[in-house]
Every structure is written in structure tokens, then in C-alpha cells.
Amino acid sequence: MSESGHSQPGMYGQGRRRRRRRDRDVGPPGQNLSGPSRDREYVPRERRDGSEEPPGPLLQKTPIILAKPPGERSKPSQSVPISGGQALEKPIMLIKSREDGGKPGTPPEVASPCSGASKLEREGQRPTQPVYQIQNRGMGAAASSGAVDPVIGQTKLVPPEKMKHSIKLVDDQMNWCDSAMEYLRDQTDMLVVGVIGLQGTGKSTIMSLLSANAPEEDQRVYVFRAQTQEIKERGGNQSTGIDFYITQERVIFLDTQVRLNLSPLLFLNQSLQITAFLFTVCHVVIVIQDWFTDINLYRFLQTAEMLKPSTPSASHDSTGSSGNEEGSEYYPHIVFLQNKSSRDEFCPRNLKKMHMAVDKLMAHSHLKYKGTLSMLDCNIFPGLDRDYLETEVNMFLLPLMENEGEDALTKAGSGSAPLFSLLPGYRGHPTFSSQVSKLRSQILAMSRCQLSHTILTEKNWFHYAARIWDGVKKSSALSEYSRLQA
Ligand code: ATP
Prior knowledge:
Residues 1-127 are annotated as: Disordered. By secondary structure, the chain is α/β, with parallel strands linked by helices.
């Protein structure tokens, strides 16, 4: 810019100017340093020529700090290092300032994260690798619970959200609800457990105990709300539709409302829909009864199995599939749960008869009702060997959930001999809570086989279940069955 804009200097002749400047250069070096800068524009041109004599290079070297007296060198570090000697001193200064934590004027506590950051900004021109590393480490240690670490931690380790109560998967109007989706994840290792049973048999109670609650807890805090006394008295039904709850161990529990014998056809139809749905989307379906047994229940199970939607094939256009069609159809494990069982039902002979009866009633079913759960494995009957129940089905007995201490005392007190009055009464079975925990471990250990031809994540399962529910509702087989029953 100087060349284009200042054509006039050329008019005066360059030789004259040079001479004048040379005269000025004769003065002391300090003057040269503080000399006006407007003359500098001419200097490079002269140097480029290479025809200039020593004064030019001298002018350049004068700013070098090496020439400064030692007193000036210890002054502020703003001076830009030029020579190698000064560059060596720089790292020493850096380390000092880091260790002191911003000593010039700032208090030491504030110096850790904040002053460190501001210092980095100030010293931005000369950061070296170690400075960044040490400062980062220092920040992590000093502010371990500060604003940085939790953010990183949150993104890496978000625990699965814990459900407080069950929510609706299918509402009272038999419509699908989407709210469960937010609790589901993209992982495949989940277990789906459904329950069916007659009214008031203890479905919600058992599902709460299997999923999140302990028998000692107040029933009002159970995740699946149990029937209240008022509902019980008027013969009402607490559960409607399908309730959903997922544990942090990724077990999905589905509590349902099933009305079998007493109900109008509409209810029977709805119950069949729900049961057929459970047979398609659950790994385990618990069938609860509180007495042994109602033949209608087995008819109902048979009908639901018949109306169950067929498992969608892997690819629709697959022509020559190797397996037979029956083998590719999905059927869940069925567990018969005798709730509120009496002492007599725990009697081995009665137990055997019960197993035989269920085995005969279920003989033609494809549902996996035997071979996956055993009371004999739980050390409930220590004297019985495995062969005792040759027709063993997946059956489990839960006693009455009574006030155990009270019950034991009354029974023991009724004995005639004074010695026996000190002993607890004979119950004939383990305690309710011990039975529940045995049942839970048996259920949770059941095989998590594939529900469909593709491996489902929790979220995939949700979409799959929604599709199956839609299919069940529109099922022509179900509507035809209802029409024939009418
Ligand atoms: P609904 O058909 O209305 O949904 P449900 O089958 O879910 O009812 P719950 O509401 O769980 O049944 O239980 C009905 C009643 O039976 C409750 O008062 C509950 O406390 C009681 N109950 C459940 N299991 C037992 C048991 N083993 N011993 C004693 N009482 C029990």
C-alpha cells in the first residue's frame, strides 16, 4: 500500500533520503529503537537489495531482548521470546504458575478450575502438551463432583428408569397404550411374564411379589394394585385390560383381567383376546387358581390356544422352509400356580393327584406345561425323590398369606402336652414368603426363547406386541367363535 499510495517519495530522489537517515542512525541505539515507525516502510526495500551497509541489520537486531540488562529480563513475561536462551526459560515459568495455582492476586481455591481456564486463555499462545494434560487432571481431581464429571457420567451410565407403579398396556376399552415404550431399551435379554386367572385369585398380588414388592409390605404400595375389600365384597374386578410393569432386571410383567365362567359373552370374548395375546408375546404365562380346579379353565385355555395368532414367519416369500410348520409355531411356558393352598394340598399324595389331573387335562395342548419348573427342585419336600411325581407338570403351590407368627402360636398352644406348647405349630409347608422367593427364582430362571423368528429387543417386542394385539382384535377366528357362541 505504501508503494502504490506514495509515489511522491520517488520524486524527491531516494539517494537523498538514505543519506539523511544514515545521519540520524549515528545517534545512540536507544533512539533508534524508539524512532518513528513511518520510515520503516523503506527499510525492507533497501535490505532486499543487499546493497546496504551494516546500519540496516543493526537496526533489526536492536529489538533483541538479549541485549537487555538482567534487571529488565525479570520483569513481566509479556515480552515475546526470540532467542533460544529465553525459550529455555519459559517452561520453568509455566510449571511454577501451574503449581501455585494462579498466585498473582487470585486466591488459591478459586485458582483450580476457573483461574486455570482463564490462565489457559491468557497463555493461549504458548501452551505445551503437558500443561493441558496436567490441568485436565487437576480439574478432575479438584472438582470431582463439579459440573464436568456428572455430565460425562450421565451420558455414559444412565441407569434404567425405575417404574413406581404398573401402567396400562391395554386400557379398559381394550385399546393399546403407548406409554410403556419410554421404559423400554434396545437390549434383547428380557423375560416377559404374563398372568391369567379367575377373578380375585391373587393375580395382582402375586405379580407384585414377583416383580417389586415383599410380602411384609403394605398391599397399598404394591406395583400392581390388589383388590380392595370393597371390590371383593361387591364381587367386582380390580384389574382391567392389561397392566404393564418392567423391573430393572428387565423382566416385563403383564397383569390381566380374565373372566371366564360367570361373564357375559363380551367378557369371555375379551378374555380370550387377552389370553391369546399373552400366548404369543410372553415367555411364561402363569395360570393362577385359588382352588383345585375348575374344568372351564382348561377349556378356556384350549380355546385361547386355538385362537392364538400364528407366529409371523421370518420371510413371507420363503418357499422351502426346512422345519415343519408346527415346529415353527411359538408356544409359551405355562405355570399352574395354586394360590392360597391349604395344608392338605401340600400333602404329597394330593400333590401327585393334582399333577396327574393337570397332565391329563392338558395332554393335547401345545403349550409348554411341563418340564420347566419343579417344586421338587426347591427342597420343599425333602423326603420326596424326583421320581415321585412321574407326571410332574409346571405346578407350584403358594400357601395362605396369613399372619404367620399368630397362626403358629395358636396352633402350638392347642397341644395337650405342655412341652409342645412351646414349639411352633405344624404348618405342613414352608412360609409364604419363602415360597414366593422360591417361585420367583424358578420363574426368572426360565428359558428366554425367541418369541418370533427374529431376535427382539425390548422396543421391538413392544412394536411386535402392538401388532399382535391389533391382529387379535381384528381376528376373524375370534369373531367367528363369538358368533357361534351367541
Ligand atoms: P382381580 O381379578 O380383581 O384383578 P386379582 O386376581 O388380581 O383380582 P388380587 O387383587 O391380587 O387378585 O387379590 C385378591 C385378594 O386376595 C386380595 O385381598 C389379596 O390380598 C388376597 N390374596 C392374594 N393372595 C393371597 C394369599 N396367598 N393368601 C391370602 N390372601 C391372598
